[in-house]
Amino acid sequence: MDPKISVHITGTGRAVPDRILTNQDLEKMVDTTDEWITTRSGIKRRHIIGPGQSNSDFVAQACRNALAMAQVDAADVDFLLVGTITGDLIFPSTACLVQEKIGARNAAAWDLSAACSGWLYGVKTATALLKTGMGKRALVVGSEMLSTITDWTDRSTCVLFGDGSGATLLEAREDSPGGVLATYARTDGGLAELLHIPKGGSRYPVTPEVLAERSNKVQMKGNEVFKHAVRNMESAAREVLAQAGLGTGDVTLLIPHQANIRIIKAIASRLEIEMDRVYVNLQEYGNTSAASIPIALDEARRAGRVREGDRVLMAAFGGGLTWGAALVQF
């Protein structure tokens, strides 16, 4: 009988800018208050990229940290997937730049554009590739420099976003229990205008008029996004649990996309998972889009919140609209 291949997350890493933007700093920039931001989002501060820094710099460092944890050399990586909507360049992909920076000379590298769901889409893709025997190791990264696409005059959005990178190393193993138990991903392009950047691409290239109206920056219909986020993240979480034949009581830790504390609490309540089994760090980072779950996962692992045998449920929702979930046993 052929051995059964399972895919395991063996290394995690994160990297964020040193520069911190607090709610008090934002009070000086737009008409807002620390109390207003904290009450409505749970965010207290966020890390912001500085002059001369790039997305690929932080992806590379996060990857190095994940590889060091797993004690794997970059040359032994077969795939490098970067979930991002804020790449260094239009092309080549940020993954290509990172491949050279970390010395992953044998890896095929490409970017995934799924907004906040980017890392989960990457996990789903990499798991499928590794399970079919097309490779043994994949680096899957979520990384965003959202400050570069934020309208810093729009108080409804600028208080939410931050920059950072989170990386995971996935490895294929034979006849090894656990690993990635289930993944799920869905899209509804009919709702794209709820969370998007309306101009600045090939359909509406950047012009002086586009810059003046700031339509090359993130725009969001918050109330509508909230409703879809809660409903779809819950359904995605239940889907992966059903695939694995498990219930919410079998979950050791829930790591949801770190967008808004009210969304997180609503999802936990719907899933009947107590908040002491939910990992929350958005107060420190804000919404880092595709990076939020892998950053939180790395923090949780290094803090001892994720141990061998634990089952971790992760769910995200983002522009597209996209959403998904993964259930992993460590």
Comma- or semicolon-separated keywords:
alpha/beta, Peroxisomal Thiolase, Chain A, domain 1, 4-stranded mixed beta sheet, 330 residues, 13 strands, 25% strand
The CATH class of the largest domain turns out to be: Alpha Beta
Q: Percent range for helical residues? A: 25-40%
Question: What's the story with the biggest beta sheet?
Answer: 5 strands, mixed
- Distance between the terminal alpha carbons, to the nearest Å? 25 Å
What's the CATH H-level homologous superfamily of the largest domain?
A: Thiolase/Chalcone synthase
The SSE order reads EEHHEHEHEHEEEEHEHEHHHEE
Give the oligomeric state. Answer: single chain
**CATH architecture level-2 label of the largest domain:** 3-Layer(aba) Sandwich
Shape: globular
Spatial strand order of the main sheet = 1-7-6-4-5
CATH overall fold name of the largest domain: Peroxisomal Thiolase, Chain A, domain 1
What class would the helix/strand composition place it in? alpha/beta
Q: How many helical elements?
A: 10
Q: Kindly provide the radius of gyration, computed on alpha-carbon positions and rounded to a whole number of angstroms.
A: 19 Å
Low-confidence stretches: none
Task: State which percent range the strand residues make up.
Answer: 15-25%
| SS elements, strand count | 13
How many structural domains does the protein architecture include? 2
